[in-house]
Write a structure and sequence with these properties.
Blueprint (H helix, E strand, L loop, with lengths): L3 E2 L1 H17 L1 H5 L11 H18 L5 H15 L2 H17 L6 E2 H18 L8 H18 L3 H22 L1 H6 L4 H17 L32 E9 L7 H10 E8 L3 E8 L2 H8 L3 E10 H9 L10 H13 L11 E9 L2 H9 L4 E4 L8 H10 L2 E7 L6 H5 L9 E4 L5 H9 L7 H13 L2 E7 L4 E3 L2 E3 L4 E5 L2 E6 L2 H9 L2 H4 L3 E6 L5 H14 L4 E6 L7 E5 L1
Parallel strand pairs: 7-8, 7-9, 9-10, 16-17
Antiparallel strand pairs: 1-2, 3-5, 3-6, 4-5, 11-14, 11-18, 12-13, 14-15, 16-18
Helix pairs in contact: 1-3, 1-4, 1-10, 3-4, 3-5, 4-5, 5-6, 6-7, 6-8, 7-8, 7-10, 8-10, 18-19, 20-22
């Protein structure tokens, strides 16, 4: 039994844990209680702790205090979604407890776990039982009990995981939503996978495979060095996308890529596809790919600058040199260059989170200074939001997360910003964010605007139509994969195999019958003709409401419908 660990041990434990949850992120995603295609707890937790692993790989950390500090700082800025934020808080409290420690034993580890739990509970306004908080709390309590009998860190961590597994099994009984779905809490499971990964590292077990590149493909992609020819398209673009469904048809995407570039190769299996293409507009290739799934990895290199480097006898830069380039940029910043923090030029500024060109345009038209790409299945990190806040030239920056799973990540930015005030309006949907911006008064105080924008957001009722990603039996609904689903205020409203029938049922619901204003935002998978048909359904059913139809361009959700 290992009695103590040092900084190098802790560093490797976090790296191992990141690989462990990355290997199991999809089973965690599948625990999402709704069958809608937005289960992303595993992805968020994997990306969050992955930032810590990346930072730790760059730095030597001789003491546990140093390793924990590096990990906590990276987790804070890389936190995605509520589960990622809570995970970062657990590590932040842990790091605080071991700050001055060169090595730690089981007692120290138990105390640090307890500090982490306290930090997480303090940050959550209304802690609920049957969540990652419950699992972490009971795990920490058992760790403390075990440490009183045996101070070896291995035995303490082993006892903590065993108790956590019992607590996880009980989450299905503690949370009514989990009980209806018959699943355990996804965040709690992710937390225990991380602890198990740390224990496996301590025991010298092999690290789990990351990325699954060995999976057989239907079409082998050979990405060889480009032949010596004139470079028509500058950017060598390679990316991997996790498919929406195994049967997704990539032919339209292939045609699109051929229209904007050449040297196209697509390799795929049932779960993902990998693309190689030369193009002058890599951003459009990446945006288009998200119609077919979730973008997981991308690599873009400028072949013209590489050719110039080689012609001049220099080593061609590539994405493999990113660490060195980042270090150079950091050095420039330290010398006074590269400052991305905009000086205040006006009283108020606004940063909004949304996915879809149409929605982004709406927010820009209403005065948003910065747009952070993201939403369901694409939760931005705290660092992503922080960058847009820093770029906004205002004394007070209002942040509109527009998704309940992004609010906590946005709130983590508040203490990280210097020289300007940050106010997070807890908008849970895009329509709430739009109404909040409409309520803003440039002549009012920050306090009055906060109150008015919050009240405006709370007055909005949001409905959404998406599809079922899997078979499910939820709350009396027998749901089949591919069915259309209607959600009202994030609760399941109904299902149907006919989207027009589902729209008609939504239109006669109380929220829309009592509304004065209704806005319908149609997504990227909806044609203008289909959107007009939806408008006609609502116009006929809601004669007393003023109805607006707008192209939102959002992924995943066919329609976002607001009622005020």
């Amino acid at each position: 039994m290992r009695v103590t660990i040092d900084g190098a041990d802790f560093r490797q434990m976090v790296i191992h844990a990141a690989a462990a949850i990355n290997a199991q992120k999809q089973p965690i995603n599948d625990l999402n209680v709704f069958p809608v295609p937005d289960g992303d707890t595993g992805t968020n937790m994997s990306l969050t702790i992955g930032t810590a692993a990346t930072e730790l790989k760059k730095k030597a950390t001789p003491t546990v205090g140093e390793a924990a500090s590096v990990a906590a700082s990276a987790l804070l800025r890389g936190a995605r979604g509520n589960s990622g934020v809570i995970l970062s808080l657990l590590f932040r409290g842990f790091a605080k407890a071991v700050k001055e420690k060169e090595t730690i034993d089981g007692r120290d580890f138990a105390i640090a776990l307890d500090f982490g739990v306290a930090a997480a509970y303090k940050a959550v306004m209304k802690p609920a039982e049957g969540t990652i908080l419950t699992v972490s709390r009971l795990s920490a309590a058992r760790a403390a009990e075990a440490a009183r009998k045996d101070a070896s860190i291995e035995s303490v961590l082993e006892a903590s995981i065993a108790e956590g597994l019992r607590a996880l099994d009980n989450t299905v009984n503690q949370n009514p939503v989990l009980k209806k779905a018959g699943v355990v809490d996804a965040g709690g499971k992710g937390f225990l996978i991380i602890l198990q990964g740390m224990l496996d590292s301590m025991r010298g077990l092999p690290m789990p495979e990351e990325g699954g590149d060995d999976a057989p493909t239907k079409e082998k992609a050979e990405f060889s060095v480009m032949a010596q020819e004139e470079i028509t398209f500058a950017f060598d673009t390679v990316f991997i996308v996790r498919k929406k469904t195994a049967e997704v048809d990539l032919e339209p995407f292939r045609s699109f890529l051929n229209s904007i570039g050449d040297s196209l190769v697509i390799g795929e299996d049932d779960e993902a596809f990998k693309v190689h293409v030369h193009t002058n507009i890599p951003g459009e290739a990446l945006n288009e790919s998200q119609k077919y799934g979730t973008l997981e990895l991308a690599k873009i290199e400028n072949m013209r600058t590489q050719a110039d480097d080689l012609a001049a006898g220099r080593q061609a830069q590539s994405t493999d040199d990113l660490d060195a380039i980042e270090a150079e940029l950091e050095a420039q910043k330290a010398a006074g260059g590269g400052n991305e923090i905009a000086a205040p030029e006006k009283p108020f500024g606004f940063v909004s989170v949304c996915a879809g060109d149409g929605l982004a345009a709406v927010f820009h038209d209403l005065g948003a200074d910065g747009i952070v790409g993201g939403g369901q299945t694409m939760n931005p990190s705290t660092e992503d939001i922080l960058k847009e806040i820093n770029r906004t030239p205002a004394e007070v920056v209002f942040v509109l997360p527009n998704n309940k799973n992004i609010v906590m990540a946005a709130q983590q930015c508040v203490p990280l910003v210097e020289g300007k005030q940050v106010v997070v309006i807890p908008t849970a949907t895009v329509p709430q964010g739009i109404s909040a911006l409409l309520a803003m008064d440039p002549e009012a105080s920050a306090e009055d605007n906060t109150a008015n924008m919050t009240a405006a957001a709370e007055n909005v009722r949001t409905s959404e139509i998406t599809y079922a990603a899997r078979d499910s039996d939820f709350d009396g609904f027998a749901i089949k994969q591919g069915d259309y689903l209607a959600l009202s205020e994030h609760q399941l409203f109904g299902t149907d195999q006919d989207i027009s029938a589902l729209l008609a049922r939504l239109a006669v619901s109380d929220a829309h019958q009592q509304a004065e204003f209704i806005s319908i935002f149609y997504g990227e998978d909806v044609t203008e003709e289909q959107a007009q048909a939806a408008l006609e359904i609502f116009t006929a059913a809601c004669p007393n409401a003023e109805i607006t139809l707008l192209s939102g361009g959002q992924p995943v959700y066919y329609y976002l419908i607001s009622a005020e």
